[in-house]
Specification:
With 478 residues, the protein is α+β, with helices and mostly antiparallel strands. Among the domains are: 87 residues, no CATH class; 88 residues, no CATH class; 57 residues, no CATH class. It is built from eleven helices and 25 strands. A seven-stranded antiparallel β-sheet has the order 2-1-5-6-7-4-3. It has a six-stranded antiparallel β-sheet with strand order 13-14-11-10-12-21, with helices on one face. Strands 23-8-24-25 form a four-stranded antiparallel β-sheet.
Length: 478
């Protein structure tokens, strides 16, 4: 019985590579140590081969690793061997079909647990883009109590500035022309403005970084019609309450030659900022997909809700809530006259005139009545300091200031972070890619891992167990 031995053939134990034994030296086996097994035989030769590493025994039809060499006598050498089951049964292995978790035919976009993600922090790349959601313009919404109940009036900065000028500038006469050619009465007298303060009818003022739709009407403060045109926002009970903004975009899908970015949260992350609602993370598994954002703003409360959906995914992937409208403090004025002896105003004829003017200022505003009121006040407490004390002033930031610091971000902002691993190619060249697919192994090369492999061989159960162990733990198809 002969054995073919080589001192130069090298291979890993978890490889199916077979050597060309016909090119090796052939030696005659002079003895077998009993008991002898085909899995771990111990053969005796009359030749010492100091670097012997690998062998093939034709009678056993098996390849072997030479694990030890011992001197039996001066002329007899004993060689211990272990079967190379992967090489011996290579054809049986590669002609089988298995479910593979790693293979050369794997998916480059699946998470690869063999790569340490901390290695690539220095390779962070950032892509930042603004996504138009339809928010444009600036709107101030005044919640005003008037003869028609509580109304929401939407005005732009120019109109709001004009309204404040009309209400507070005593040197201003006239008002903004209305659409029908008439003008509303202007509250220009200091005294009347003290008793009839239109700001007392403004329940709230809120700024929105967008334009709100609705019909137009003149703004009414209590019983006073200012004549200033504004957009009327409908109340909830008649179908009003909110405006909706929306947009669509595609998540960017950065890739490299090894596909480390797409679908893997270890390498790729998306952060989406929605105005008024804040930030939300979108999983990397949606990379390259079509995304929709619907933002609904409730203009009665200033609150907003956003829903993010992904094409092909049932339901919303995220829901956000927040505040799109920013409350604005125009002023906090008072008409309390008790501290300056207001009861004196109601004495005598002058007091009757004052009561008549203050009970219905809209009907009695006029230069002659104003002059009479001033004369009455000057007669009781002479001097302009009284009028100056009665004239209210803005106590907070002006409208112009509000327009500046409330220039909120009107676009959704998508920030994409992705990492580029420095050792990607070396890992994949050695261990291939994640797979999770059923394959015929004859079509694969390189490192492969099989889940729950099944193999049939014309060999021992011990050899079959060796093969299954390697296939489950990872082996090289060569």
């Amino acid at each position: 019985m002969n054995v073919y031995i080589t001192s130069t053939f090298k291979k890993p134990h978890n490889s199916t590579k077979q050597g060309v034994y016909s090119n090796w030296y052939s030696y005659t086996i002079v003895g077998l140590k009993e008991p002898c097994t085909v899995v771990n035989p111990i053969i005796e030769l009359s030749t010492f081969i100091p670097n012997a590493c690998y062998a093939y025994i034709p009678d056993f039809n098996r390849y072997y690793f030479i694990t030890n060499i011992e001197s039996e006598t001066r002329d007899i050498w004993r060689y211990s061997m272990a079967v190379d089951a992967l090489a011996t049964y290579k054809n049986d292995i590669i002609n089988s079909s298995q479910y593979c978790s790693r293979s050369s035919a794997g998916n480059a976009y699946l998470n690869d647990a063999l790569i340490t993600h901390l290695e690539n922090q220095v390779e962070l790349k950032t892509l930042r883009e603004n996504i138009d959601i339809g928010l444009s313009g600036s709107t101030f919404v005044l919640e005003v109590a008037g003869t028609d109940g509580v109304i929401l009036y939407a005005v732009d900065y120019v109109t709001l500035n004009f309204l404040i000028t009309t209400l507070f500038d005593a040197s201003f006469y006239g008002s903004q022309p209305s659409t029908d050619g008439t003008t509303g009465a202007s509250i220009v007298d200091d005294t009347v403005k003290t008793y009839f303060n239109p700001f007392q009818y403004i329940l709230s003022c809120r700024y929105y970084p967008c334009t709100l739709s609705g019909s137009t009407a003149t703004m009414k403060f209590g019983w006073w019609d200012s004549g200033i045109q504004a957009t009327v926002l409908l109340p909830p009970h008649i179908g009003g309450n909110s405006n909706t903004f929306s947009t669509n975009f595609t998540l960017p899908q950065p890739t490299d030659n090894n596909g480390f970015y797409a679908y893997d949260d270890n390498w790729l992350s998306y952060n989406l900022f929605v105005p008024g609602c804040g930030d939300v993370n979108i999983p990397a598994q949606y990379s390259g997909k079509f995304v929709s954002i619907i933002l609904e703003a409730d203009y009665w409360t200033g609150q907003c809700n956003a829903e993010i959906t992904v094409d092909g995914v049932g339901g919303a992937v995220a829901r956000l809530s927040g505040q799109l409208g920013a409350d604005i403090r125009l002023s906090n004025l008072s008409s309390d006259m008790s501290n300056i002896g207001s009861t004196l105003l109601f004495a005598g004829g002058s007091g009757n005139l004052a009561r008549e003017v203050l009970s219905n200022p809209q009907a009695n505003i006029g230069s002659s009545i104003m002059a009479g009121v001033f004369s009455a006040l000057d007669g009781i407490i002479p001097g302009s300091p009284v009028k100056n004390a009665l004239q209210p002033n803005l106590s907070v930031t002006s409208a112009a200031g509000n327009a500046n610091w409330l220039n909120a971000n009107r676009a959704c902002v998508l920030t994409t972070h992705y990492y580029s691993p420095w050792n990607a190619q070396s890992v994949h060249s050695k261990f291939n890619y994640p797979d999770n697919t059923y394959h015929s192994l004859v079509d694969l090369t390189g490192y492969t891992i099989c889940e729950s492999p099944y193999i049939e061989i014309n060999g021992t159960s011990e050899e079959r167990n060796i093969i299954v162990s390697f296939m489950k733990g990872g082996f090289y198809i060569e």
